[in-house]
């Protein structure tokens, strides 16, 4: 690995999320001698549960962010994180938070079913919003939120942001260079035994698709183009579960999903997700060693190990496993330099396939922008 360009995943997570904060802050004002002044974005975080333990260390260490308030309907959680991360203002609900200490940027890490309403409230109150996935519980509602953000000249981001990862860049370049010839098919999967701390993952609006498949849906539509049609089969494998917040619960949303995507021009892909997958590698897949995305073309196929988590997803390397080097990764992978030797040897981009690949050149940064 090229040390000069290497970046570990913590660093990448920091720069990616915090780039959002920097954008939300608007242009920074220069000082008298015209040196750029750092403007810290006044930030509030709502939802002080599991994933806040990944967000808050990054946000509170950033020179671009000032976390001024925390909120959770389980108020003790907001207080606990307030003490741990030295945030003075804590609130038990969104109304109190919006009426309290002023801030410009809301980070929403609440339950999946809560995002839509909270994001709307925050946008209406003039806040930029970064939301965990999904930003809303239906396409129509998501589009309404985006329209609202645009109207109010605010920014709205929705996790996952896999398309901004160096691994995505690498994959996209391979395709754009025609390394695989004419792309035909792709497969991606992500699963584990399911979260055991909160019921919302298994209740209406939850399920393995919005929680897990969404990462690969984002990556594959980014790589292969928008989808013309979708077919899926879903099932419930484990009808009852025990979770920390509610005890024994009935599972009413799918915990096993197979999604077929038609990207047009003959390209078909398949995304698989589930909460019943034996996975000894942790739910964020940080110790994963097998590939999770494979793409097949007319002259070669390629496999990538992409382990996933919304804020720290990119412990990924292009296959092969023997080249995989733990949590290190390369931010600016130039084509071929990280490709497996067999791929470099066998791939011969033909003129027509290269053109095809270019027409499929991925759209970087397909996150939702309010401005
Ligand atoms: N836990 C992870 O590792 C992880 C990883 C990636 C993404 N996510 C996503 O992050 C989000 C949160 O997941 P989590 O695992 O942290 O869940 P969690 O249950 O641990 O935390 C959610 C918190 O939000 C609070 N909350 C719920 N509704 C609220 C409301 N209306 N107002 C204020 N607070 C409210 C809950 O009390 C809880 O403390 C989900 O969208 C999940 O898909 C989680």
Word description of this protein:
By secondary structure, the protein is of the alpha/beta class. The protein contains ten helices and 17 strands. The protein has a seven-stranded mixed β-sheet with strand order 9-12-13-8-14-15-16, covered by helices on one side. Strands 4-3-2-5-6-7 form a six-stranded parallel β-sheet, with helices on both faces.
Structural class: alpha/beta
List how many beta strands DSSP finds. 17
Gyration radius (Cα, Å) is 21 Å
List the secondary-structure elements in sequence, H or E.
Answer: EHEHEHEHEHEHEHEHEEEEEEEEEHH
- Tally of alpha and pi helices: 10
Distance between the termini: 37 Å
**Bound heterogens, unique:** nicotinamide-adenine-dinucleotide
Give the rounded overall mean pLDDT: 79
Largest beta-sheet characterization: 7 strands, mixed
Q: Helix coverage percent of residues?
A: 25-40%
Strand coverage percent: 15-25%
Relevant terms:
single chain, 371 residues, alpha/beta, seven-stranded mixed β-sheet, 10 helices, 17 strands, 23% strand, globular, disordered N terminus, disordered C terminus, binds nicotinamide-adenine-dinucleotide
């Amino acid at each position: 690995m090229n040390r000069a360009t290497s970046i570990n995943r913590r660093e990448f997570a920091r720069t990616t999320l915090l780039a959002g904060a920097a954008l939300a802050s608007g242009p920074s004002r220069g000082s008298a001698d015209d040196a750029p002044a750092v403007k810290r974005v006044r930030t509030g975080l709502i939802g002080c549960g599991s994933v806040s333990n990944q967000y808050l260390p990054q946000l509170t260490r950033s020179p671009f962010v000032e976390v001024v308030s925390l909120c959770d309907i389980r108020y003790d959680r907001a207080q606990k994180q307030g003490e741990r991360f030295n945030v003075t203002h804590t609130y038990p609900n969104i109304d109190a938070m919006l009426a309290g200490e002023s801030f410009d940027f809301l980070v929403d890490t609440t339950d999946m079913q809560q995002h839509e309403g909270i994001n709307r409230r925050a946008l209406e109150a003039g806040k930029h919003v970064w939301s965990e996935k999904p930003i809303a519980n239906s396409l129509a509602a998501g589009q309404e939120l985006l329209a609202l953000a645009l109207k109010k000249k605010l920014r709205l981001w929705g996790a996952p942001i896999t398309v901004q990862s160096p691994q995505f860049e690498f994959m996209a370049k391979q395709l754009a260079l025609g390394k695989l010839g004419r792309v035909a098919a792709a497969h991606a999967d992500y699963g584990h035994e399911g979260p055991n701390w909160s019921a919302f993952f298994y209740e209406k609006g939850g399920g393995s698709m919005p929680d897990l498949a969404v990462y690969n849906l984002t990556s594959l539509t980014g790589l292969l183009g928008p989808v013309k049609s979708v077919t899926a089969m879903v099932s419930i494998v484990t009808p009852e579960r025990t979770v920390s917040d509610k005890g024994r619960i009935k599972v009413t949303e799918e915990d096993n999903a197979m999604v077929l995507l038609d990207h047009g021009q003959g390209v078909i892909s398949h995304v698989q997700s589930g909460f019943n997958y034996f996975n000894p590698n942790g739910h964020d897949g940080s110790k994963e060693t097998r590939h999770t995305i494979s793409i097949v073309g007319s002259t070669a196929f390629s496999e990538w190990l992409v382990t996933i988590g919304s804020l720290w997803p990119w412990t990924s390397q292009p296959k092969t496993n023997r080249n995989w080097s733990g949590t290190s990764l390369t931010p600016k992978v130039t084509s071929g330099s990280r490709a497996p030797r067999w791929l470099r040897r066998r791939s011969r981009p033909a003129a027509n396939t290269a053109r095809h690949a270019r027409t499929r050149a991925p759209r970087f940064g397909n996150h939702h922008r309010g401005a």
